[in-house]
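Example A, followed by Example B.
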Amino acid sequence: MTEELYLPAGEYQRTFDAEVVAADEAGPSVVLDRTLFYKEGGGQPPDHGTLSWDDGEARVVDVRKDHGEIRHELDGDVPEAGTTVRGDLDWERRHAHMRYHTAQHVVSKVVLDEYGASTAGNQVYPDHARIDFEPADFDEADLRAIEEHANDLIVRDLPVRKENRSRSALEDETPEGRTNLDLIPESVDPLRAVSIGDIDVCPCGGTHVDSLAELGELEVTDRTSKGANVDRIEFVLHDPATAD
């Protein structure tokens, strides 16, 4: 089984060394004994980057879990099993996903607290994110209120803590409607928990920033109905260096 080096709190590491344990030239892809590359899941796309070794290099263009293995799909040479490789993350892409995934947690918590609506689905990208809420029927005033409440939390620069917690502790602390803990197999214990200050905690395997100051200003850009009692909110983050 591949060791996921970014868990529970190694998101800021950008390079690593690993050994190829399986190679598929037809894929082309490799399985490593350890990795920093995030595999697609939980509404978050995979990391990209490069693998290099003594006599070759390839771009990592996709990372997925396949029959229990974390498979790195490559564009370029394929190293043989037993080869030691160096992995380098596309840091700009990784950090963008970290910012938007943490912002998704902020917005989801705000909407749960203010409107009693749970997150029914979400997807983050390098330049925007969307969240589906249920039950929900937002108007323009609601969108501006959600935006304001989220930015009020962001300017407080709350710390974001990532750690492994016992399942029973998380079940006690996670508010009803915040996450679907029942969808996580009972055998998964402990769980990786993401906490934002003292306002939010929920299980999550995605990558996150260490503090809300990294998010910058949040702007809600759109709302669409996705069916009875389901509304989708889309938002963007402005660079902290240029936010007013």
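Example B, a separate protein, is given below in the same form.
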Amino acid sequence: MSKNYLSLFGNGYITWAIRNHGGYSGANALQFSQEQAASHGWARYGDPEYVPHVLRYYSGENLFAGFFGNDQIVSIAKAQLGNEGGQKFWSWYGFQGRVEWCACFVSWCAEQSGLISSGSVLKFSYCPTGVEWFKSQGKWQDRGYMPTPGTIIFFDWPKNGAQDEISDHVGIVERCEAGMVYTIEGNSGNKVKRNSYDVNSNSILGYGSIGK
């Protein structure tokens, strides 16, 4: 990569973009370039078209997926912890009023990670639609699986002591260790928050893999 590209890395673009925007885009790369130029009194800083230029060199047209793989969606989800109400996510999806927004949150994180444009994840707002898509793609794993970070986790809350095999909720796996799966979920108590479950919990319906 050119020195222009490296200058944006070396001066904190990645951290800045995650902290301020929850992800990377051509628009916020341009904003970063303009802010840095202004703060230093320069006419130009780095390459204002940094993101679209560098994306050419990475499969799936996503630079940061090329560097970080599935961990990127986790980083983006973590940056949203504490969000209440979910308007950022359900309005992005296209809804005019509040809906149950767990799937909108997952889809938003996937879009920010380039996983929707690469075809690794479907944009969905209804959990059963997500389940069926992962199954149709051969990317589905049932409860008891040991998921890797970034895996999409689907839940089925037991009703009257029994499951109906229809997903009620969805989140993103942050990590899995010592028989526990740790998640980041939107619309958990109307917030983006962390939760944890035994890998054999009856509340887990299964998983959608985002790997190639």
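On Example B: Strands lie at 140-142, 152-155, 169-177, 180-188, 191-198, 204-208.
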